[in-house]
Structures are given as C-alpha cells and as structure tokens.
Amino acid sequence: MNLAVRKLFITVFTVLFFAGAAYAVDVYLSLSMASQRSDIALEIFTTTPRSAENVRFTSQVRGIIENNLILSRYFNLVDATVGAAADMSEEERWQDLSNLAAVATVRAHVTFEGDYAVVLCRIFDVDSRQLIWEQTFREERINQRLLAHRISNEIIRRLTGEQGIATSRIAFINDNTGFRELYVIDYDGH
Description:
- The longest helix has 21 residues, at about 50-70.
- The strands form 2 sheets. Strands 1, 2, 3, 4, 5 and 6 form a 6-stranded mixed beta sheet that branches. This protein has a two-stranded antiparallel sheet with strand order 7-8.
- The protein has helices at about 5-20, 50-70, 90-100, 145-160; strands spanning about 40, 45-50, 75-80, 105-115, 115-125, 130-140, 170-175, 180-185.
- The relative contact order is 0.13.
- Helix 2 packs across helix 4 (about 145-160).
- By secondary structure, it is an alpha/beta fold.
- Strand 5 (about 115-125) and strand 6 (about 130-140) form a beta hairpin.
- The chain is globular.
- The chain contains 4 helices and 8 strands, in the order H-E-E-H-E-H-E-E-E-H-E-E.
C-alpha cells in the first residue's frame, strides 16, 4: 500500500470511528436460528425447608431460568404448571407432559445451607422418561441471578451443545444525569 492510500485509509477510519461516538444510536440485537425450536417443559421447582422466603426464592430462580431459556431462542417453553396439582401422581405428570408434546422436562429441587442455596437440577426425556442430565449448583443466596444464569447456561449446553450466554454482562456509558456514568448489567437487562 502506498503512503497516500494508507493516509487516506487512516483518515477515513478515524473520521468514521469518532463520528460514530459523536452520534450514538441505539443498537438492538436480533438472534435468529435456521433450525426448529424444541418444546421443553419447565416444571414447578420444589424446595425444603418449605417457608414463604424459600418458596419465593425458588420461584424467582425458576422465573429467571424461564426468561433465560426464552431469550436463548433455542426452545419453546410449554406450560407444565397448568393442571399441575400437588397430589398428581408421577404417571399423571408424565402423561400431562406427553400431552403437551414436550420432548424434555426440567425439574429442580432447592435446599438451603445457611447463606447458600443448593439446586439439584435434572433434565428428563419425556418419551423414555429417562434422566438425561443432573447437576448440583451451589451459590450464595445473594447471588440468586448468577445461580439462575449458570443453571440456564448448563441446560442450554446439555440440550443444544451450544454455550449459553446468560452469564454475559453488558457495559455501557450513560450521561442522562449530566455526568458520564458506567453501567454494567446482565444480558437480560437487570
């Protein structure tokens, strides 16, 4: 590359780079996939000891996981909570999941050890009723979102072979207050 072309290239690059910073625009990401999404069920998570605080924590973890799996765009989540009664037999649960056309179901049980939440998460194949995967996750209760994101990533990895992005973080600068401030958020906006 001769000197004149190199100078022109550097000048154009510099102008475009700084012009982009001067005229910031909103950027939206859209993920699309060529393959068809799998129908999976996310059952109601159980917890012991059963207290209002533990039930709320467990429900919130399940909600975060549900949102992560939807945002991943790998799955269609079928509602396994409709008609799910506490007195439902195991056979009735499997029949209900089969009627929903789910190929897999995610079950989890949450226990607590002091300041830590321990989640035993399992994925079952609905047709064969066979265990596909299970893993125990342990995290401080205050890291509830990180716990749910880690579980979500592993569910995605086990069912698709792809790495999940739920533990990703986004950093950006905002000057709405009149000062340039750095923000760091979870990929889902929290």
